[in-house]
Design brief:
Layout (H helix, E strand, L loop, with lengths): L1 H101 L14
Keywords: Coiled coil
Length: 116
């Protein structure tokens, strides 16, 4: 009876030891999963921060582009005004030249200015 009892004790001991090993392995896996989850959360937080920084930069660049575009519009308006003015002056000059020709003026027939 003792040999069987010893045999049973070994099986029980072996079985219990296997459960403990499996339990220890499971705990290690759980611990590793927790660590990876923490690393993933940290990486996600860093990605979120970088995304926010990128959005801020994009917004700044958009504001600068809007300013530039507005400046270009202002420049274009400023350029158009002198062009319109020059066109008006050319029309006025043409009218005066036509009137002068009607009164007998010919190109190259300018009268010198007399000082009195």
């Amino acid at each position: 009876m003792f040999p069987d009892c010893a045999k049973q004790f070994k099986e029980v001991k072996s079985h219990a030891s296997g459960e403990e090993t499996e339990k220890g392995h499971t705990e290690l896996l759980i611990e590793e999963l927790k660590q990876r989850e923490e690393e993933a959360m940290e990486a996600q937080q860093q990605a979120d921060v970088k995304l926010l920084e990128a959005k801020k930069l994009a917004s700044q660049y958009q504001n600068e582009a809007d300013k530039c575009s507005s400046g270009m519009d202002t420049c274009e308006e400023a350029r158009e005004k002198p062009v319109e003015s020059l066109f008006g002056q050319k029309k006025l000059t043409a009218l005066w030249e036509e009137k002068a020709r009607e009164l007998g003026w010919k190109p190259g027939n300018a009268m010198p200015h007399r000082n009195q």
